[in-house]
Amino acid sequence: MNTNKQTWSVPGIGIANTVRFSWTEKEMEPWGRETFGRTILMGCLRIEVKEVLCLQGNPNEKAFDVTFHKEEKHDEVLKMAKEAEKTGPLCHYAVTSLAKNNFRVVTVTMYNPHVKDEEVRAFLGRYMDNVSSARYLRDSLGFWNGRRGFQALLRESPKSVDGYLHPPAMFSLGADRGTLYYARQPPFCRRCMAYGHILASCSAKKCRFCGSEEHEAKECDEPKACHGCGSKVHLWRDCPARHRSYASAAGGVRGMGGGKRGR
């Protein structure tokens, strides 16, 4: 079973909690909606109607797309389908996930509202791909509350706590501090600036600047790195990304940073 195959009919951000059942038999006509529902969903996979948000037919691709209410059910069905893919009625279908598990909606708060969108996007581009333009979040009266929303894709990172590279939940762009959060964000420690645990359970003495476990940040004498791109050749105020165009700075290119003031 190929769980990574995507087709042109799938949005770039995927379809959450959705599994596609594609007909693979060339010598047989595809089953109709009722036969598929009774035989595959209710029969083989023991799915109840109340667990399904939507069952859509996709005649152009000889497929049915099943969207579940819960992510747990989506994962369970994929597992069951893989175990039974070569036996019984499921052998007629290729089962793939249309969900992109690395898609995130990131909420960023910069305590200085004058920091430019392209600078924030350039910072996110160090860790994430396809960073969207900013959406300003407003309160019930219509005032901007200082938060900006971005859509982006996490990069794979086998060494991280969940297989994805995550931008730091607390960061600085020069003298300007910021925070960010999103759904399914791992626990973040404010002391060692690492994911996987919180401050209360942190036992490491680790410098957030150079990563050394021999000293803390206040004792660090290593050359400071640019907050935007991570380079030790220059500081944030001299980062080349601050001179780039909006499009190039925010395109999610690996290693790019933004620039404004300070380090």
Automatic annotation (TrEMBL):
Domain of life: Eukaryota
GO biological process: activation of innate immune response
GO MF annotations in UniProt: double-stranded DNA binding; RNA binding; zinc ion binding
Domain (CCHC-type) ranges: 188-204, 206-222, 225-241
InterPro entries hit by this protein: RBD_ZCCHC3_1st, RBD_ZCCHC3_2nd, ZCCHC3, Znf_CCHC, Znf_CCHC_sf
Protein's recorded name: CCHC-type domain-containing protein
Provenance organism: Oncorhynchus tshawytscha
